[in-house]
Amino acid sequence: MADTTPEDGRLLFDGDCGFCTKSISWLDARSMLGYQAMPWQSVPDDELPASVERLTTEVVLELPDGRVLGGADALAASVRASRSRLRLLGVVVAAPGLRQLARVVYRVIARNRYRMPGSSDACRIG
Question: Which of 72, 80, 84, 112 is the most core-located residue (most Cβ within 10 A)?
């Protein structure tokens, strides 16, 4: 994954979690991410856009304008910004009603990521 700066926007994920790494790699391989994805552990502590606690519990998108989104909102925004033919999924997921559902589904998956394929002990939250 190439170097990027906050000015470009970046999607930060838990690089210690096998499930997170495989999920982001799958999306990236299909050009479904509109921002550079990187493990938050590769970013100097003083440049992290969110707390380590937050970064270990959800994916975080740091937008070029400085706003920070997390979880389902971060993934939807990144997919919307992609060049993929599937970027419409990011629009649909962000629609009222579906946004709330996407957030609930994301939280359930995130809490249970240690049970998912490709997971490791580092995938346990809390």
Answer: 72
Q: Which residues, 6 or more positions from 79, have their beta carbon under 8 angstroms from its beta carbon?
A: 27, 32, 33, 34, 86, 87, 89, 90, 93
1 is a domain residue: no
> Does residue 125 fall inside a structural domain?
no
Count how many residues are written for the chain: 126
Taking the CA atoms of 31, 67, 74 and 50 in sequence, report the sign of the dihedral they define.
positive
Q: How many domains does the chain have?
A: 1
Based on DSSP, count helices (H) and strands (E) in the chain, helices before strands: 5, 4
Q: Which domain holds residue 111?
A: 7-119
Q: Is residue 2 part of a domain?
A: no
Q: What is the pTM of this model?
A: 0.88
**Along the 126 residues of the chain, how does pLDDT read in single tens digits?**
444 445 689 999 999 988 899 999 999 999 999 999 999 999 999 999 999 999 999 999 999 999 999 999 999 999 999 999 889 999 999 999 999 999 999 999 998 888 887 776 666 665
Sign of dihedral through CA atoms 62, 107, 113, 77? Answer: negative
